[in-house]
Each structure stands twice: as structure tokens, then as C-alpha cells.
Prior knowledge:
Blueprint lengths: L2 H4 L25 H7 L3 H12 L4 E2 L9 H14 L2 E6 L2 E6 L1 H7 L3 H9 L1
Antiparallel strand pairs: 1-3, 2-3
Amino acid sequence: MASSDTAPSAARPRGRAPRPPLAHPARADISLQGVLDALADPLRREIVLRLAASEAPMRCGAFDAPVALSTLTHHFHVLREAGVIRQFYDGTAKLNELRADDVEAVVPGLLGAIAGAAR
């Protein structure tokens, strides 16, 4: 038996490589139509209301939605692509936060109107 057969394998980095940041539109690329389209769905409006009420970013798993996980993921994707939310990784958790300042800059008063209509 050759000594290379019993030698430990070359050191490999442990754990996962850092994930690349998720793509988000710049404020200048957020459109009225895109925001309105994203917020046309009642589940997405509920996600936005929960994020607006939260003092900290929320994990995707914190949302108890009556849909499959793949469907919920789609809703987060639509909101992110429209510029309504920001998603980022903290370890293995994907966190979500509302881009309230950006949405208000594009559509002033919309988030307040949605919150008021939900009451």
C-alpha cells in the first residue's frame, strides 16, 4: 500500500461559500406600474404589511402563508424584482425588509394607503 493511499486528503474549506448578493433594482428603476403589479396580489400586500410592522428584517420562514413554499418564494421574488422589498442572506437564512423609503419616493403615500385599507 502506497503512503499516498493512507494520507489524509488535501484540506478542503468547510462550510458553504458565501452566496452572491441578490439583484435588486435601483431606486431610479422602480416604476409605478411594477409596484402596483406587485401589490395587486393580496398575499403580497400581507407580506408588505407584516414587513412594515416589523422592527427588524424577517426570515422567509416567519411568514405563515396558506400557500406552498415554492409559491411563497415566487411572491417574494415578485416583490424583490419590483423594488418593494430587499432580500439578503444571513448565514443560511434569507431575510426580507421593506424598501419603504424607495417605494415612497416613487409612489408617495401608497404604503400608508395600503396599511389604512387593511385596518
